[in-house]
Design a protein that fits this description.
Its EC number is 1.1.1.8. The chain has 381 residues and is of the alpha/beta class. Helices cover 48% and strands 15% of the residues. Helix 9 (216-238) packs antiparallel against helix 10 (243-264) and helix 14 packs across helix 15. The protein is globular and about 70 Å long. The structure holds nicotinamide-adenine-dinucleotide. Residues 30-35, 61, 63, 84, 113-116, 118, 139-142, 172-174, 318-319, 321 line the site of nicotinamide-adenine-dinucleotide (NAD).
């Protein structure tokens, strides 16, 4: 008869096999500045939490570095994204993978975090390549505008991949979280509170406080629209108009964010604008952040150098979201006949495209905004 301890070991092994089978596997799709920080946050937690596999895959859009080496190989050798997050160790359990299909194949939790303009192409490549029981979360700020109307990125993911998608947004300038400075974030979920709590556990650390609200559209629109207001704040800085003007632009911007969100989705909650994804993200983006910075340079140059040129020169491969979001918002506004209701959003697009000078950012109020937001509906006064 075999000794008792052998039997125990065998049953332990089986138990551990079953446990392994039920552990969530996380893949981060994207490896820019925020993508790399998200992978670092998640990897520190998967090591501690028994319900997750330790390893975190991170899909890398392959690039050849000036040294001639491949970015993904350098990340795996140094445990550091030398291009998008230099000087920060990601955690040894982060594995960079340049093969998109391979990176997502076994994942039960997919974290999408690429610039929004690449998402439709990425989702199309992933159709039929992911697990049917996978859950997704989008950290992406931006929207797609289609013939039938605006489409939020979480909806794009759900529609193209047939999976549930939460969102995570907040006052989160990636470089500050990378060095573990305290900040907060908001998870937006549709119905399933348990799934939202799993995402909260995956992201929360003592320096990154995450809470969940049942308002996917509200959270996602906050994160998306504040980049348009940040462009306006950058114009104000470039024109050296001072703090009162910037505060006024932020207030008007917040009002337009709320009105636009509620006109598109009546389910959007007022309280969402007081979460980290709302007012807090608006403030941090209008004080710091790349959209504000490049818009400041645009205004200092009197609008004579294009955003594309300034983005390439100032951001070293990182992408601006505010200018393309302003164009997308403008398309929605003009299509629906709402341009006059949103003078700040409209002016940002017209200045960005050179139709108006940067100084027009404070002249728009002469067109008397006739927006009166009453109990969630926008009406003419
Ligand atoms: N950086 C931040 O502080 C921050 C904070 C919160 C949210 N976000 C949001 O996160 C999202 C991702 O931003 P980021 O900062 O991680 O990226 P980033 O702007 O730092 O980097 C750009 C990324 O896009 C990749 N890329 C370039 N061409 C591509 C292509 N054709 N297809 C796919 N990928 C391509 C690059 O390899 C790189 O990983 C954006 O929606 C952004 O608004 C960023």
């Amino acid at each position: 008869m075999a000794p008792a301890f052998e039997d125990e070991t065998a049953s332990e092994t089986n138990f551990s096999d079953v446990e392994q089978l039920h552990k969530s596997k996380v893949t981060v799709v994207g490896s820019g500045n925020w993508g790399s920080v998200a992978a670092k946050l998640i990897a520190s937690n998967t090591l501690k939490l028994s319900s997750f596999h330790d390893e975190v895959r991170m899909w890398v859009y392959e690039e050849i570095l000036p040294s001639g080496e491949k970015l993904s190989e350098v990340i795996n050798q140094n445990n550091e994204n030398v291009k998008y997050l230099p000087g920060i160790k990601l955690g040894k359990n982060v594995v960079a993978d340049p093969d998109l299909e391979h990176a997502v194949k076994d994942a039960t939790m997919l974290v999408f975090v690429t610039p929004h303009q690449f998402m439709e192409g990425i989702c199309k490549r992933l159709v039929g390549k992911i697990r049917g029981d996978a859950e997704a979360i989008s950290l992406i700020k931006g929207m797609e505008v289609k013939m039938e109307g605006p489409c939020m990125i979480s909806t794009l993911i759900t529609d193209l991949l047939g999976i549930n998608c939460c969102v995570l947004m907040g006052a989160n300038i990636a470089n500050e979280i990378a060095v573990e400075k305290f900040s907060e974030a908001t998870v937006g979920y549709r119905e399933n509170r348990d799934i939202a709590e799993r995402w909260v556990r995956l992201f929360s650390t003592p320096y990154f406080m995450v809470s969940a609200v049942q308002d996917v559209e509200g959270v996602e629109l906050c994160g998306t629209l504040k980049n348009v207001v940040a462009i306006a704040a950058g114009f104000v800085d470039g024109l050296e108009m001072g703090n009162n003007t910037k505060a006024a632009i932020m207030r008007i911007g917040l009002r337009e964010m709320k009105a636009f969100s509620k006109l598109l989705f009546s389910s959007v909650r007022d309280s969402t604008f007081f979460e980290s994804c709302g007012i807090a993200d608006l403030i941090t983006t209008c004080l710091g952040g790349r959209n504000r910075k490049v818009a400041e340079a645009f205004a200092r140059n009197g609008g004579k150098r294009s955003f594309d040129e300034l983005e390439a020169e100032m951001l070293q491969g990182q992408k601006l979201q505010g200018v393309s979001t302003a164009r997308e918002v403008y398309e929605v506004l003009s299509h629906r006949g709402w341009l006059e209701l949103f003078p700040l959003f409209t002016a940002v697009h017209e200045i960005s495209t050179g139709r108006l000078p940067p100084s027009a950012i404070v002249e728009y109020s002469e067109h008397t905004p006739r927006l009166n937001v009453l109990e969630g509906s926008a009406q003419y006064c």
